[in-house]
Amino acid sequence: MRQEERLTSLRRNVRSFQYSFQTVSLSRRPAGASNRMFLLTGSKGPQGAGNERRTVYQKIREYDLLEKKKTVTALKPGEDRAILLGLIMILSSFMMFFLLGITMVRSYSDSVWTEESSCTVLNASITAEMNCTYSCGSDCWRGSKYPCLQVFVSLNASGKVVRLSHNEETQEASSECFYVPKCRKDHAAMHTIIANISERLKPQQQVPCYYDPDERQDNVILTRLYSQGALFHSLLWPSCMFAGGTLIILMVKLTQHLSILCEQIGKAKR
């Protein structure tokens, strides 16, 4: 009986000790610690996964932006230079068209000697001395003379006898003389030039000539100042420059459009 009472008292003491230990541990723990630990533990899984996904997305986005920036910085200077070159070529062609329009094209369109034929030289002789002036310095002009060569031909297209001039400028300078040399002090040199021309234009010689089909001008000219061939070749180069500049700009724009399409297709495949 005494042993059983001792065991019972020991059990009671152990239980009381355990109860007191639990009470002390609970009293020392701050309020809501278990709830917070549960909340932190429970929320750690989904929030951590979202952060990881966001981090991966940001890395991919930053990589795409970096690659795109590298492509843009690599292609933009070349594209800008190509477009600038195309614009310069187009502007240069416009300037050339303007200059040719007020010089060659205007002279060609104003010329009335449009029909080509052949003429027979009837007479070529020096008839008189013509006065001219030449420059001897700043605000200095002196007079000189050159021989006037008159050439008469028979126009084979109509049979008329008309006076022959060298070109349109000679006709405007002097309607009587075949050729007007550059005025200079040396009269003998100008006389030699005219004499050589007179020897080449021998009587009964067939020479090409241009006449006015509307008969507004009675004389004919030997050569046109600007022929169709010269006009074509002079307008060919600015036309090629304009076409080249336009083609360069179109190619750059096409390249940019294709690069955008390729980028959109690559994003769609991802």
UniProtKB/TrEMBL annotation:
Domain of life: Eukaryota
Compartments where located: Membrane
Membrane topology: Multi-pass membrane protein
Assigned GO CC terms: voltage-gated potassium channel complex
Keyword Phosphoprotein: no
Gene3D superfamilies the record matches: KCNMB2, ball/chain domain
One annotated GO biological process: detection of calcium ion
TM ranges: 82-105, 230-252
Swiss-Prot/TrEMBL keywords: Glycoprotein, Ion channel, Ion transport, Membrane, Transmembrane, Transmembrane helix, Transport
Pfam entry (one): CaKB
Every KCNMB2 ball/chain domain range: 37-66
Main location: membrane
GO molecular function: calcium-activated potassium channel activity; potassium channel regulator activity
Claim: Glycoprotein is one of the keywords in the record: yes
Protein name per Swiss-Prot or TrEMBL: KCNMB2 ball/chain domain-containing protein
The organism of origin for this protein: Anguilla anguilla
